[in-house]
Specification:
The protein is of the alpha+beta class. It folds into 2 domains: 2-112, Alpha-Beta Complex (Phosphoenolpyruvate Carboxykinase, domain 3); 137-179. It has 5 helices and 6 strands. β4 (87-89) and β5 form a beta hairpin. 7% of the residues are buried.
Length: 180
């Protein structure tokens, strides 16, 4: 997450500028609509450009001063600001490009996990996967933990009762597979 670290330390910068450490800011993902700072109105659009480290994904939510916007009809690959305008907007309106860090005010840094990561969570006690709506025991309040233990105890008791009545016997095909 070198880009995020650099942004947090130096602010948002236009490619070609020099950081406090003397490093040149490069183009991270192209410059179709001009060589500037790219932003998106929809977070889902920005997610396509997030380079994530193992457990560190983040989006920066910003306020942007677009001023007079030039709506690009053709790519401006690496070009500068169109004369007489303060910013560029892609033809779809999904991408905003400003050419000065002073036009962008970072407001929030949002850390997140993907749906797949949430789905892969496991209960450390049992090792069983948690559904996305379930909490891990260490994240539960005392009341939630007591209720969970009661539910688990009832479920175990019902399973024993069903087994004693012979209701949970495996079907013949399943029993043969288990014996192999």
């Amino acid at each position: 997450m070198a880009n995020l670290d650099s942004i947090l330390e130096n602010g948002l910068m236009v490619p070609g500028q020099v950081t406090r450490q003397g490093q040149h800011v490069g183009v991270a993902c192209g410059s179709t609509w001009g060589r500037g700072i790219y932003l998106a109105i929809e977070p889902s659009f920005s997610l396509g450009y997030v380079r994530a480290a193992a457990n560190r994904k983040a989006l920066i939510v910003c306020s942007v001063l677009l001023g007079k916007s030039f709506v690009c009809s053709n790519p401006r690959r690496g070009g500068g600001l169109h004369q007489g305008f303060d910013s560029h907007v892609s033809p779809s309106g999904k991408e905003l490009v400003v050419f000065s860090g002073a036009q962008v005010l970072p407001c929030w840094l949002v850390h997140f996990k993907t749906t797949a990561e949430i789905a892969m969570r496991q209960d450390p006690a049992s090792g069983k996967p948690l559904r996305s709506t379930e909490k891990r025991e260490e994240d539960m309040s005392e009341k939630e933990l007591r209720n969970k233990k009661r539910r688990d105890k009832r479920a175990r008791r019902r399973a024993r009762e069903r087994e004693a009545k012979g209701l949970d016997k495996p079907k013949q095909g399943q029993q043969q597979q288990q014996n192999k």
